[in-house]
Amino acid sequence: MWSDPEPPAQLAMTEFYAEHVHSHIHANPHQTLQKYRRRICSELAKFDISIEQLRDKTILDIGSGWQAIVFQELGCRQVYHLDINAKHVDFLNRYIAENGIKNIISEQADISSSLGSAHHIDLAFVAGVYHHLADREGFLSKLLPNMAANSDILFRVYRAGTWSRWLVAMLRTASIGRLTPEQLLSAYRLLHPYALDNQFVGDLIDDLLTPQWLAFRPQQFIADAERLQLKWQCSAAAFDFDFSDQDENFRVKWHIDDPIAINPSNRLIATGQALTENALPTPEIAELAGKLTKLLASLSHYPKRDAATVLVALYFLVRKHSGVDAYRGQIADAAPNPKLADWRIAQLDASLTYFRDWLKQ
Ligand SMILES: C[S@@+](CC[C@H](N)C(=O)[O-])C[C@H]1O[C@@H](n2cnc3c(N)ncnc32)[C@H](O)[C@@H]1O
Question: Where does the Methyltransferase type domain start and stop, copy by copy (predicted)?
């Protein structure tokens, strides 16, 4: 049996995204901007928010800064951008200066304790962020009083009970605090030496190593809205577990009539409680989950190189990769797999048997 000398230091959220994730998925700025233009239009359309409605509005964006650029392009009156990561803020401030933009303010802040100068917000675009916050009550207690009357918060959140989120929650038990981005990248290059899929690589490192990762259920956001006496809108399909082709994210909109009437401080919110249910299996796959747990626990007895290779190989079942698509059980442009959930479960089971026997030798 093997023991590695030092476990890797825990990665810090202040550096994680710019250094290890966005450097891959935002490698081509032109493609990135196009992706964010498409994404924002499609997210707004899901709630029937028209571009015209946003023209005289104040927007809050949190993240890499590309969303702020798109909201500004769409003609919003004022855009506030926040991120915990200085590089994202520096990038956006350079972009603002180079393009003579006057109505974006970008500031470094941990949104759980400060919203910088953002206030009187008409639309808070909280996409891909809430599930990475350790202190969600802190964030809401800053956000809600800074919303304008008749405003909206649009959340896009990881959905518990979907295939990719369930499997990632499990795989993280063997990656967090053990492996580094470099070890995952080396394993990826060994398994897939032909071409680099930047999106896949960025998602792989994000999913397996982001310091804070949670998955929620739509009911929790609805319960919170009702506790806070806010109107809500959510068209996510109702299910607890569905391992077929369900979207791994869901969207909810909260509407704030009057921010002064809300008091978030003295209520226990459902999305604020620390969640440990992320990786709970359905009864039907309890045996498979047990087998996976056992294999993942055993990885700590092997060299990091072997652990990373097994994890990356299993991650090919988490999402699609250009050309090879184990995630959907098909190659390139083959017809959709008609029994996707069954295929995924069988494929994972076969992979676990294979790796268990391989490691034992
Ligand atoms: C998955 S990324 C993407 C967010 C957004 N969808 C985008 O593409 O710009 C999550 C972002 O949230 C930021 N973040 C995480 N925790 C934060 C916190 N407590 N305060 C401010 N920003 C935070 C990270 O630095 C990262 O840029």
Answer: 60-142
Range of the domain at 171: 163-211+279-360
| Domain harbouring 76, CATH code | 3.40.50.150
Cα separation, 160 vs 168, whole angstroms: 10
Are 44 and 51 in contact by the 8 Å Cβ rule? The answer is yes
pLDDT single digits (tens) 159-210: 999 999 999 999 999 999 999 999 999 999 999 877 788 999 999 999 999 9
The answer to whether the CB of 63 is under 6 A from ligand 1 is yes
E strands in 128-248: 147-158, 231-233
Q: 194, 116 in Cβ contact below 8 A? A: no
352 lines ligand 1 (CB under 6 A): no
| pLDDT tens per residue across span 214-254 | 999 999 999 999 999 999 999 999 998 999 999 999 999 99
Instruction: State which of 32, 42, 132 you would mutate to test the pocket of ligand 1, scoring each by most atoms of that ligand within 8 A of its C-beta.
Output: 132
Question: What would the two tokens of residue 307 be?
Answer: 């652990």
Kindly report the protein residue whose alpha carbon is nearest to atom 7 of ligand 1. Answer: 63
Whether 5 is covered by a domain: the verdict is: no
Which residue CA neighbors atom 27 of ligand 1 most closely? 63
Ligand 1 center to 194 CA (angstroms)? 31
pLDDT in tens, 91-106: 999 999 999 999 999 9
Total number of domains in the chain: 2
- Does residue 338 belong to any structural domain of this protein? yes
**C-beta 58 within 6 A of ligand 1:** no
End-to-end CA distance of the chain: 11
Report which protein residue has its CA nearest ligand 1's atom 1: 128
What pLDDT is attached to residue 24? Answer: 79
Burial group, residue 320, by CB count within 10 angstroms (0-12, 13-18, 19+)? middle
Query: Is residue 329 within 8 Å of residue 344, measured between CB atoms?
Result: yes
Q: Tell me: the pLDDT tens digits for 327-338?
A: 666 556 666 788
Task: Label residue 271 by pLDDT band (50, 70, 90).
Answer: confident
Verify whether ligand 1 is closer than 6 Å to residue 13 (CB atom): yes
